[in-house]
Design goal:
By secondary structure, the chain is mainly α. The protein contains 23 helices and no strands. The relative contact order is 0.16.
Length: about 425
Amino acid sequence: MELAILGIFASALLVCIIFEYSVLYALLFGYCLFFSYGLIKKFKAPEILKMSLLGTKTVKNIILTFILIGMITAVWRDCGAIPFIIYYSSKIIVPSVFILVTFLLCCLMSFLTGTAFGAAATLGLIFMALSNAMGINPFFTGGAILSGIFFGDRCSPMSTSALLISELTGTDIYANIKNMMRTSLVPFAASCVLYFVMGMKVKGAEISTEMLNVFQSNFNLHLIVILPAMLIIFLSIFKVKVKIAMMLSILAASAISLAVQHTSFKELAKLLLLGFKPEDEDVALMISGGGIASMFRVMVIIFISSCYSGIFEGTGLLKGLKLRIIRLSNRFGPYACLLISSIITNMIACNQTLSIMLTHYLCGDTEKNKEQLAVNMENTVVVIAPLVPWSIASVVPLTAAGAPVQSILGAFYLFLLPLWNLRKNSYKT
């Protein structure tokens, strides 16, 4: 019966993906489905509601982080931080290293903002536009973008997936980041080499500066505008709490918007809520977005997904599957079992948040070391999500950047990271 319930839910998700309906419809249907399962198992409605609320406690802190991310991605645009990074970084780009630079700058942007979607909607969009103008195959550029944006989505102190795994495993996010950096050195270096070689083989024209000059005419690109981004890095080094670091960065960026970019208090309040929407059409095409409103859909998704985890645990819906996975873990090792489970959960869940929660529930008892469990999840379930073509982890950023779905095959870092760590962990089992 349990497998049939999961199969119906997976079918609902696939229908939404195929017919391009919002995944929220499938998630709401799933909640009703799992709620009904609880009733069939003789649980009373108030008990199931209590289970749902218990599940949401895991992510209550992350909801606040979503709000801060919405604010920071809007005000960084307005204060000139993002235009500054794009404008001056792009001056060093030549066609032969364009794909490598795309990967590295997307890594930087996603690390600074902690959001793959935000990085795709800013740098991703711009690099795809530049790639098209230069005549470079979008397959290569799209793969570099997808790899880069999930570099930071995995290991940024502001990443919601990193925060979620930290909460689920009861570990310190900065200790997790240290472990993530250590286990990703070889895949990152190998990806750089592959993107460099790929760039040397593709042909493209010199980059037109016309698009980039739009930033110079619409923003005061004084060095001080980079302060909010540098503040995040500085505070992270000294292990300041993520929320405090983000709040200070928002305050600094807001002050710069008011003093340097001459934004009014009314405009600032509006963009923090609704996002950065400049009047200049060229600027709007490249960097509009952000704001608390932009995170609302994601917050709803993570809230509903967290309700699932409470129902799954309370009703024992996944108990049989969990026992099978523990037995497999004893035979093949915790990491290999986690890798297989994360592939299955990502294909079923279609969104990164729910797949993280499902994988933790199924495999949380296979690894006794909490820090090892955290980094193993970061090296599997987090980076596998964007490799599933129907997952919102790949659909949203590729659509935002304007890259083809085939670009998934060019996201070398996302393939190399779990495989490299599978090789390393195989010697421990």
